[in-house]
Amino acid sequence: MTRSNKKTRLTGEQALAEAFAAVDHTPLLSQLGVELSDEYLCLALTHRSFANENGMLPNNERLEFLGDAVLGLSIAAKLYERHPDRPESDISKMRASIVSRYGLADVAREINLGPHILLGKGEKLTHGGDKDSILADTTEALLGAIYRQHGFDIAREVILRLFDSKIVGASARNRTLDWKTTLQEMLAEAKLPMAVYSDERTGPDHELTFYVTATVGQTEVGHGEGPNKKTAEQQAARQACELVQANPGAIKV
């Protein structure tokens, strides 16, 4: 009798359960400060790449849609209260900067969300768990799950706690929408040379990945990666802004 060495292929639901159980989500829930049922947490963490590779399972995009709305209202109401004398144009820009992809990705990294996201093989190979877009979308999905399980008041409390430093530091300049312009302004104010961007690209023409380095004087101040040059440059400029703001003296001209 010949034994088969073929590994039994898991069904989509089995693959999902196995992948979800492989990671301890207790630290994530601790960072969120609320309990979530396995059903809601698993759905919020399921990226479409994983869902599509495992029989078109439900993914987190509907929760993301819901979380985006809850997030926008919570931040808008808080800014309205904090800035009673500022015009709509100012608080609108503040809100946009806080709930932007970059703002959401910052929060995701603070709570170490990346390792918890269920990704397909392709996204894993390209480090999808550290991509701003995936981190931002999954953060919104988690907020949507919290809203569904606990209601608006609890969801708002979580949002205001996670985004507190961004709300306090919100600026009408809306820097996160154009980090390259913001970097130019910061460098000019610090009397430093303008940034120079160099790029490399890898992969086939239909799936290029761009790597960008931002240099000021003799110092590399930021690195970025993305599916196009613009995105990679924005990431590099964002890193550079943080360095210039924290320690401009570290830049050798």
Automatic annotation (TrEMBL):
It catalyses: Endonucleolytic cleavage to 5'-phosphomonoester. Homodimer. It is found in: Cytoplasm. This is Ribonuclease 3. InterPro entries: dsRBD_dom, RNase_III, RNase_III_dom, RNase_III_sf. Belongs to the ribonuclease III family. Its EC number is 3.1.26.3. It holds the Pfam family Ribonucleas_3_3. Mg(2+) binds at residues 64, 137, 140.
